[in-house]
């Protein structure tokens, strides 16, 4: 299992980052590798993001040194959303079957976590997000149809999209983790424009369902000091709590968002007027 540790950056320091430095701190360019679990440990709210892509054999989620525990979920909770072929997650011997766009919540205290693909030729890709947790909540398997479905945006502003809230207080209990999926309609390319910040929570995005030759311009930074990174399919970004997080693709795409921090309120956002961005 590979673990990459990312430290937190002060917004004043980020103003001076060049492209490579921005990407080193905030881009996770290699989330999925066949037959491996890869993790990135962010010091923003100690969120861990990563990918588990099992092939022939099951992959076991063990506790890396960064966690400082005997087992990965000793003091953590986990969301796993499948963006690949069919697969299953085994939690202490109980199997949960996940098709593409299904999400599993796993609470604090689960010990033995394994990931399997149904067909190694069309492997499952489990996108993982984990945050510290203070109490156990039951495991919940959610299909996209069981998520809370909201629609936002318009074709005229190229931001017509569906938001599916999976790990959200009205759908599934968690300690601090929230997680969901946003899918843009063909012809719509903008997510979260007008953009927002929420200093109470950090956020991470996994961009996917993007053609290999297309890219997403991901905007970040303080609202009056915006920067951008070019993102390819199945790459993730870490968004500090003080940063905008907004993207424009050269084509439509989907992304998984996840947040952690002082509240689980999706609507607790400070909106930034487009005219105020710099
Ligand atoms: O398309 C969107 O807008 C989103 O998906 C917004 C993110 O979920 C977000 O930034 C939540 O704070
Ligand atoms: Zn946000």
Automatic annotation (TrEMBL):
The keyword Isomerase applies. It comes from the Bacteria. SUPFAM superfamilies: RmlC-like cupins. GO terms for molecular function: 4-deoxy-L-threo-5-hexosulose-uronate ketol-isomerase activity; zinc ion binding. Keywords: Isomerase, Metal-binding, Zinc. Zn(2+) binds at residues 196, 198, 203, 245. Its EC number is 5.3.1.17. Its cofactor is Zn(2+). Pathway: Glycan metabolism; pectin degradation; 2-dehydro-3-deoxy-D-gluconate from pectin: step 4/5. It holds the Pfam family KduI. Binds 1 zinc ion per subunit. GO terms for biological process: D-galacturonate catabolic process; D-glucuronate catabolic process; pectin catabolic process. Catalyzes the isomerization of 5-dehydro-4-deoxy-D-glucuronate to 3-deoxy-D-glycero-2,5-hexodiulosonate. Belongs to the KduI family. This is 4-deoxy-L-threo-5-hexosulose-uronate ketol-isomerase. It comes from Rhizobium azibense. The lineage of its organism: Bacteria, Pseudomonadati, Pseudomonadota, Alphaproteobacteria, Hyphomicrobiales. The gene is kduI.
